[in-house]
Specification:
Blueprint (H helix, E strand, L loop, with lengths): L1 H34 L2 H31 L13 H7 L4 H29 L4 H23 L2 H11 L2 H18 L1 H12 L24 H29 L4 H23 L6 H24 L3
Helix pairs in contact: 2-4, 2-5, 4-5, 7-9, 7-10, 8-9, 9-10, 9-11, 10-11
Length: 307
């Protein structure tokens, strides 16, 4: 009887020692799985970016204090005379602007870190998570840049917004962006009408059950996708080069000619691609858009080239 009791005690003792090890092993496995999760990795990436950006505001405040000779603490100017201390212990608009920007970072980035971590643990869709993280990260960077603008720079920006050339660029840039964005719904329309899908779970949009036969390639769908890809390859460079071109203050008539030719060429390119018009309709429209972009790039380089 005593031997049996002793064996039971040994088993209980061994279990009490093994249980914490098993628990820690499970936690390590969960942590390893979490570190391999793409959503969590995306969150850590963008969280690190905004944290580093927020930390840089401290050195920036110090830089403005030294360059503007505006200090907040008496020990910072202890080596100066009493008269100099009175001049240096003051506030400065530039320093206060940076401090307000830093305070705004603390008010927004810290909640993002907490809420973003909880959001990442809910296993959201990767594309939706990336959209959230990128929008927040970009908004905070743009917020800091816009906060650091001086009044003179804001007046320059206001003048640029009132420029006829910039208004023209904004108009035609918006048109081609909307045209490019409409290619996604057009692709979806062709997929639904032809019952052709790229992912198995998408087949439930037309049938109650997943059907592998619908996961296939269709020439019409691929044609629209290639047209969309061509838009990305040409419109994105136009937006960058066109903005730089508008900032070189070209002649209004020349700028309108460039913007209208590019916009018209991209619209005609899409029509000829989707409707399968005979060549060289599509080829000429693509070439015209490329020549317009190269022409604007030449203007930018010849006006503002500094090597």
């Amino acid at each position: 009887m005593k031997g049996e009791t002793h064996r039971i005690r040994l088993k209980l003792c061994n279990r009490s020692k093994v249980a914490p090890l098993l628990l820690s092993h499970r936690r390590l496995r969960k942590m390893a799985a979490l570190m391999e999760d793409e959503v969590f990795l995306a969150f850590t990436t963008y969280a690190t970016i905004v944290i580093v950006k927020m930390m840089l505001m401290g050195p920036m405040t110090g830089y403005y204090r030294f360059t503007r000779r505006a200090f907040a603490n008496e020990e910072d100017v202890s080596h100066k005379s009493e008269e100099e201390k009175k001049k240096l212990l003051r506030t400065h608009p530039d320093v206060e602007r940076v401090r307000r920007c830093h305070q705004n970072d603390l008010e927004n980035i810290v909640p993002f870190l907490v809420v973003g971590l909880l959001y990442a643990l809910t296993a959201p869709d990767l594309s939706a998570a990336l959209l959230h993280f990128r929008l927040f990260c970009g908004s905070r960077i743009f917020h800091t840049v816009s906060y650091e603008f001086r009044r003179g720079k804001m007046e320059t920006q206001r003048d640029m917004m009132e420029s006829e050339i910039f208004k023209a660029f904004s108009t035609y840039a918006t048109i081609v962006i909307l045209k490019m964005m409409l290619m996604s719904p057009l692709t979806s329309y062709f997929r639904l009408t032809r019952k052709v899908f790229a992912n198995l779970e998408d087949t439930k949009l037309v049938f109650p059950r997943e059907d592998k036969k619908l996961v296939r390639v269709d020439p019409a769908v691929e044609r629209v996708r290639r047209c969309h890809q061509n838009d990305l390859e040409n419109i994105v460079p136009f937006l960058v080069v066109g903005l730089l071109y508008a900032l070189t203050a070209p002649d209004l008539s020349a700028a309108l000619l460039h913007f209208r030719l590019f916009c018209g060429s991209r619209i005609f390119h899409t029509v000829s691609y989707v409707l399968a018009l005979p060549q060289p309709c599509r080829g000429l429209s693509w070439m015209l858009g490329m020549l317009v972009t190269f022409s604007m790039a030449y203007r930018v380089l010849s006006t503002a080239l500094h090597l």
